[in-house]
Amino acid sequence: MTGIPVIQRKHAIAIAAVLVIATFTLAVYFTVLAPPGFQINITDIDPADMGVDEWLEDWQALYDFVEGNYPFLDVKNRTHGYDWLELKSTYEARINNAQNNQEFLEIIMSALMALQNRHTWVMYPANVVAMASDVADFYPLNEIFRQEVVDVTSYWQPIYDAAWNPGYNTVYNALIVYDRGEYVVRNYNASWEAKFGNDTIVTHVNGVPVDDAIETLYEVSYIDQDFHRGKNYVWSIYPRDFGGDAVFTVENSTGYVDTVTFGVESGSAYDPYDYPTTPVSTMKYENESIGYLYVGSFGGGMDAYYDQLSTFYSDIEDYDYLIIDIRGNNGGFYSIWIDGIVEPLIQDSVIYNQYLGFRTSPYATQTQSFMLDHIVPKTDFSYLPPEAQTDDYTIYRNHMTFSPLGEFNFSGNIVALMDNYVYSAAEGFVNFCKETGFATLYGTASGGDGLMIRPF
After folding, report:
1. 19-42 pLDDT, tens digit each
2. Is 3.40.50.11440 the CATH classification of the domain at 23-166?
3. pTM, two decimal places
4. Cis check: omega of the bond before 36, within 30 degrees of 0
């Protein structure tokens, strides 16, 4: 490594989870007062003594919190075809029939899944303890993750473990994966392949057209949008979706149709696509003057690959092209792509602006005030979603400046490859490429949720 510049980690900009604080696990609820503040109330009831009255009170607090602060209600109404707020009476009826705290927790987990955002969930109790330490110096989060909240996590931990959908720990003995508009059966056994071949698709589930059946899964799976084909889909179908005894109508490439059930076995849901197993890999195509860099994660520990990247960047300085492949990268930390990709490759300082819309509420304003203070006039935008044009939303600019490391001299063209698995901090990188022209993007629509500042 002598004489080769070394990339150093300088930044600590993390893309973190959006947190809807489920009040029952934390024994906290919010009373919104006139701006600029809000009040946090701690209930004095022992969680073990909770019953229907307390469950309904907590549900109402959570519902009010989402209604007043959650920014994506209108978005999900457009993309998924239902209004989460109109599900209130359904969840209240289920809570009235709950028999214990575990059943209540399962209902709340389902309600938050119905918000259809991969950064929104009921926090794992052990993570509440860690979060309390992380936000100790940040108001108002340090008031929410206070000692009284930490104290009840030991009670909720085993209940949470029991309430976690057991379907997440089972898989079919065949992979049913969404592939260019169809649900294709892969990785099954030899007798299946002999009978059906390798191009079998699922057309119906329990007699319902598969695309219609998918729309019912909003409490158990994340439903995404295939913008090219104008329909919703899930990455893959698991037993948690329709049950282990679901009947699938399948059709092969010759037109042969049959109904089948798949076996269920233990296992965790896995990526249905075949991505490289090595987090970072590089290749050089000298004759074509192309360098190839695959980065499968921006998660913690990726800075261990900085020496490898330094060697690679030195080797391709006179190449015409660099392909950065982040397909399958579901995020982690902004700092990884800033320190490991952007600043080593740029030759001049780059200004990167993010524009973030938050609900105009006391909680949202307080939570983001120490990070975001530049309000952008809505007249600056040629298009905004209808809800963002109202006074219920405020748009902020988040301004970042990146400086070149100055150790590498790559001046070729950069291409970035992306797909629907590109999510969170990885989508932050994609947005940076698009907004600044750092790289030309090729691929399918990304997974979302890449433009955030910190837990909210």
Report:
1. 443 333 334 443 433 345 567 777
2. no
3. 0.88
4. yes
